Amino acid sequence: MQNTTKRLFLGFSVKKTLECQFFDMQQKLTLYINTEALAVLQSNMHITLGFLGQVKPSCIPALLTEVDALEKPSFELVLSAISCWQKPQIICLQGQAHTPLLTMASQVQQIAAKLGLHQSTYHYCPHLTLFRRASCMTLPQQPVMGLNDLLPVNVPVSQLHLYESYNSQSGVQYDILHSWPLVPDQ
């Protein structure tokens, strides 16, 4: 039976050079976390703006129209802390959302509500996931040698993407379905 919905989210990609830096962080953390944890593939590294859930293909044109109308300022995000989130079982690099990013995240939630899509029950916190299925108990209490030298990471963001998440033979895959340029401050 063919899947009649797509698992979608809006987010920001990261530059290839930063993917390599994040991969280096994963390698340093690997010795300290549970063996069931799954490292996020470099090609899947991104910063989520809003998870939309299972979306019917017939709803996608309206979603694109709504996102077209969003104000989309470019920004630089500073990821400054390694965090472990127990409920989603992830280890991530976490940053602080400034007003333009918080505004965009709020507008995405409004779009989701308008279109009857998934809405987050959590306050928006920008992050880049390094590991999924991670037990938070295993995140080291002491700084990992060489890891603090890699923080903070400045992530310049210049495009917003609509991603589809799906399972493939090689694991979870994130494909970009549509992109929008972010507009530099005038």
UniProtKB/TrEMBL annotation:
Domain of life per record: Bacteria
Swiss-Prot/TrEMBL keywords: Hydrolase
Active site per the UniProt annotation: 46, 127
Tagged with keyword Hydrolase: yes
Residue window of motif HXTX 1: 46-49
Signal peptide stretch: none
Domain Phosphoesterase HXTX intervals: 42-89
Keyword Hydrolase: yes
Primary role: Hydrolyzes RNA 2',3'-cyclic phosphodiester to an RNA 2'-phosphomonoester.
NCBIfam families in UniProt: 2_5_ligase
Family to which the UniProt record says this protein belongs: Belongs to the 2H phosphoesterase superfamily. ThpR family.
Protein name (database record): RNA 2',3'-cyclic phosphodiesterase
Native organism taxonomy: Bacteria, Pseudomonadati, Pseudomonadota, Gammaproteobacteria, Alteromonadales
